[in-house]
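Schema walk-through. Below, the input block comes first and the output block second. Nothing else is stored per chain. Lengths vary across the set, and this one has 625 residues.
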Amino acid sequence: MKLYFEPNLDYQHSAIESVCDLFRGQEICRTEFTVTRDATAAQQTLAFAQSDLGIGNRQQLLDDEILANLTNIQVRNGLRPSASLASGDFTVEMETGTGKTYVYLRTIFELNRRYGFTKFVVVVPSVAIKEGVYKTLQITEEHFRGLYANAPFEYFLYDSSKPGTVRNFATSPEIQIMIVTVGAINKKEANNLYKESEKTGGEKAIDLIKATRPIVIVYEPQSVDGGLEGQGRKALGEMNPLCTLRYSATHADKTTALGVEKSEAIWTYLKDAGHVDVRGKVQDTLRQALKDGKLQLPEEFKAQLPQVTEMLRKLAGRLDIKNADERRPVKTRQTVLQGEEFKALWDRIKHKTTYRVQFDNEKLVRDCADTIRKCPPVTKTRMQIRKADLAIGRGGVLTAETIVAAPVILEETDIELPDLLTDLQDKTQLTRRSIATILTSSGRLDDFKLNAQQFIELAAESINRTKRLALVDGIRYKRIGDEEYYAQELFEQEELTGYLKNMLNSDKSVYEQVVYDSAGVERTFAEQLEKNEAVKVYAKLPGWFKVPTPLGTYNPDWAVLVEKDGVERLYFVVETKSSLFTDDLRDRESAKIECGKAHFKALAVGEDPAEFVTARNIDDLMARC
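--- output ---
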């Protein structure tokens, strides 16, 4: 049985148009940001220059322009116009049974068609509703592809055990729809969303979501918010949304505007408290107060504190402030550093290597072509024309938009195509001949005429991923010689500093404190090393201990000496990870870890060489003993 969806219901169209018209005057655009920050190794023989760009929503309109659009929408729907733009939250009320899920899903595609927005997060109150939304997307997928010219899109259920999906959400140029329950985002101390992960390039999943400026869609907000001061509503603000669309039949919170006089009173208080300067620039004192949850307002504005806090969080930017007063130098523990046990461990891992990449060039070309062949479809290029009146006077140039034409799909003959080979050569560092062979063999060159930019992005990403796989398969390390190594004296010569909140006192480590990056995996592992009697000495390897790879230098986590049965010594280099499973080697960090394994394998000569292992905890390490 095939379901039919009526695409022309007036009341649904009215709801979709009301939301889309909020951004009338916005041009199709996006923002880009860096997801990983790994520098490419200088000695690389085959360049692997993946763009590593995240792609996010971008709003060009000023608040006054949004407010003007909002006023027009409210008048059109018989609502009292808002006097000011109190926040980025917009309420869409629809009667039960009118198809709210269909409306907000179709609104996603309409916002993409008109303005190029690509990142959307749907927040629902329960697992059952989450599964229902996912099922709706499955059964409407063909319907929406037919309505929107087969526009590429992906949708997924957020799973806290698979944070790598969030990285794809951040980096994909396609429409991304993440479906999540409020329970997965409203408990910082328990949810992986707020923890660093190797699968997201070492970043917190929430930080990647923030950077995309997603449009957050809330289904049944009265159940999601948890009350006016509930954790759910605060968690929505943590995602740094471009705007929040709240779909429900009824809403628990009817927010009213403060008005100019009260708003100015709050603004004056913020300035007097040193939270903003005379130009309105946010100061660190405000960021600290927001981070600690200690923002105060005059007594008469206590009821508005949650809304004011939410708005200020969006304006203040990153709240992760490190207190310079808590920065401390970390001293070496001489009894460990100069001890015979640590010297034996260090002698097994200290030597430097060089590497070569061996691969079959013809196979690489074939694999690249095959990857491009399997890429999702490319949609046609679209153009939209806007007309405006200009008036030049003493006050400057004034514009008034008069006509906004419907988007026009451009035919191949209308498009001036860029230099495909040069562009891909810059993005992949392959020769023009190899790129030409890849493209012709892929059978997808006609897609370049449909949408040049989209095709270039897909082709470049496909080639770079395939190259990365070929690299790991073909890399070979060789120890340079007895004179090329990291001297043990570097522990004393190179200064190590840390912040009190990221330091753990240690008795077995080469340093008096362990400076850890992750409060989850790394701190727990250090505590376990301290308590386990089989562990004799260890080191959290400092940043200057680097393994060269074509993808940038790799810094392993730990060096550990374990004594088995009180007699046999075992030596390990340990990479701690929250999971021992990786999706594949397309992830740059996973590929660098594989290169690290090859490096230490090349050093595994002589008696009792060090073994490279990955571990979630001390039990995984002890299982190798």
